[in-house]
Input
Amino acid sequence: MSHNKISVGSQSPDSSGDISVALTNLSDVSISAPSANQVLQYSGSSFVNSVLSGPLDLTGVFTVFQKTSAVYSSSGSYDVNDYLFLSRDTQGSRNNAYVDSSVVSSNPATSSNTIKSNDKFFESVDILEAGTYLCICSVPLKSTDGGDVVRWHSNTGAFGASTDVHYTNRTSGLVVGIVTASLNDVLRVVVETENGSASATGATQNKSFSFHIFKL
Output
């Protein structure tokens, strides 16, 4: 009489019929000198132990903090689909900024996309290197009778969480999103809905603004 012998990962059952399988018994796993805090990653041919790398690493490619007042004439009110009107990185005397010009560049504000044309402010950022980006903006926006909902947008549409900037938190609502952007994509923060009216802040309040893009 013949009997079929059951095994899993080349491991046979013990006298109680239990099969114990270790990670290294699997055919597509190759473990070498494992150490604390390593993870299992696919190498292209097998799963190997290694230090975590990749998407959780990030590199800052665009950061702007306003350090002195940004003076401009009457700010006007935002409409739905307008881009935020943001203090530009090129104004070195009033901003602290870091820009990796091989990866991103800012576009001057235009009245066709935001509340007015002014090359001391920017409305969007061009992506010069395809990749995945973490985008953060503390919104310089004010309202006395409602507020606006803003969200990150790329050329393919909205991404990240919507943020309601209400008159009770007049400035610095935080807008965050992650996007996989193609070459020559354009990233911007867009007014999606209105509740009352909202406008750019005054010169002093606009110092609450900051804008950051990290490449993951």
